[in-house]
Amino acid sequence: MTIFIAGGTSGIGYALARHYLEKGYQVGICGRNPGKVPHNTFENLKILQADVCDMDSIAAAVRSLQTDGKPLDIFINCAGSYAEDVAGKISYEEAEEMLQTNILGTANCFEVARKAMKGQKKGSIAVIASVSGILDYENSSLYTKTKRSVIQISDAYRRALKPFGISVTAIAPGYVDTEKLRQLNHNDLHKKPFLTDEETAVNIISKAIENREKLVIFPTKMKWMMKSLSLLPSFLLNMIMFRKAQWMKDNRP
């Protein structure tokens, strides 16, 4: 099998790459900074420089992985950008980065994968969203709104690509114990409920893609907590989520 992972040079993306490489699959990963990848000991790994905000660069990276004419079996978009703006202010640059990466980047990846797989009449596309994206309320953060958009974009492509035998899976994880999460929180994760380790996350994600599931939310406790919150009146949900954001920012090192 041939797998391409955008945003695969670190975090969940690189963990997924290792998972597929250990199965003996051909894997291509890309990111803005390929130098983040640890020393490569895998013969079947191709490391490429590409930016999801630039569709041409993603398309070129996928083509370079298919030099022998093999079909692209799985395309996973793990690229994402985060900045908290509920209990504080973010800069224009941070807002633009989230909009470009999380929304435009998602659309670009779907388009590149669609064009690569359409003639094959088979393939699987997956995108990493966020459990926060299942909540719909007025004062949700920009990050939450972009990740909700990711889920909705996935829904649209799922319907459009189903006749061509291409599955689309949206992954909405809660907190996953990655190096990036630890950096954002100064290595203090005690305020991150229902934390999932990388290995568990990889197993859940890879099985969801294999089973061609539509939307996977994990961990289970976080899933039901967020679904319960979504039933609350908007004004109450706004208040709860704002206070939660303030609490998480309090007493940061």
From TrEMBL:
Keyword hit for Oxidoreductase: yes
Record flagged with keyword Plastid: no
A Pfam family reported for this protein in Swiss-Prot or TrEMBL: adh_short
GO MF term list: acylglycerone-phosphate reductase (NADP+) activity; triacylglycerol lipase activity
Record GO biological process: phosphatidic acid biosynthetic process; triglyceride catabolic process
Record's keyword terms, sorted: Oxidoreductase
GO cellular component: lipid droplet
SUPFAM superfamilies assigned to the protein according to its UniProt record, in alphabetical order: NAD(P)-binding Rossmann-fold domains
Database matches in PANTHER family: NADPH-DEPENDENT 1-ACYLDIHYDROXYACETONE PHOSPHATE REDUCTASE
Family listed: Belongs to the short-chain dehydrogenases/reductases (SDR) family.
Protein name: Short-chain dehydrogenase
Protein's organism: Chryseobacterium oleae
